Amino acid sequence: KFAIxxxxxxxxxxxxxxxxxRGYQFGDGVYEVIRVYNGKMFTLKExxxxxxxxxxSIGITLPYTSEHLTEMLGELIIKNKLHVGIIYMQITRGIxxxxxxxxxxxxxxxxxxxxxxxxxxxxxxxxGVKTILTEDIRWLRCDIKSLNLLGNILxxxxxxxxxxxxxxxxxxxxxxxxxxxxIYIVKNGVLITHESNHFILKxxxxxxxxxxxxxxxxPHEERTFSLEELEQADEVFLSSTTTEVxxxxxxxxxxxxxxxxxxITKKLQxxxxxxxxxxxxx
Length: 282
Ligand code: PMP
Description:
Blueprint: E1 2-5, E2 8-11, H1 22-26, E3 29-37, E4 40-41, H2 44-57, H3 66-79, E5 85-92, E6 110-117, H4 122-127, E7 129-135, H5 150-161, E8 166-171, E9 174-178, E10 182-187, E11 190-193, H6 204-215, E12 220-222, E13 225-226, H7 227-231, E14 235-240, E15 244-251, E16 254-255, H8 263-280
Parallel strand pairs: 7-8, 7-15, 11-12
Antiparallel strand pairs: 1-2, 1-6, 3-4, 3-5, 5-6, 8-9, 9-13, 10-11, 10-14, 14-15, 15-16
Helix pairs in contact: 6-8
């Protein structure tokens, strides 16, 4: 398999970083995960825009234009013969003697991308997943898709040890997001999800879902909601690039909507599928 390594496509096994890469030492970088269906990239522009935004917000200037990145990623998919899967792409501030402050002089950012085959989670999309609740202990710039994921990792590990798929995080009484997903509730036919501010990552799947709501007359609100609202919701689901519109059927051992998948969740799964077909074909 091949990888993009600083502007070139090389054998993945040849792609090696120095021990003083700032991503390795500090998590000083940002990343994206892009879905590939049918050999085509889904919501590519949105991912590249977010990649630029994340980089900008920590003062890393991308050494390539979005057009150049698009070309390289397309070539990588072809070389790796990727049909259904993901592209992982990250950029770090580069290699420099260890020092917290940004390096001065000509340090070039390190960009890496590789592909992974990953089928759609078709079974879970039908049956739903179990979750736990956990306090959100992360920093206050969760809008940046940073390589620093310790808070997210600890939350996911807690879920994993409880035999669950995801941890729903909350700051005090307010629900924020999953460890690697956005969270939605439905109450009396209205979809509610946290507004996209510095407390959560502005999910690309979230954008697809909210746009589908707008276009199909599904009432929706972007606002914070409480743990009580979560517990009393008619439907709960999560979304992410890899998991799409994923129903939640259990939270901390308590069944959600009788363990079945609610009508709005189901409708949004259909609309999400339509968007995939529109962009990537059948
Ligand atoms: N929040 C967090 C913390 C995430 O890691 C992810 C996955 N990238 C998401 C939300 C969902 O974002 P997206 O729909 O762009 O994958």
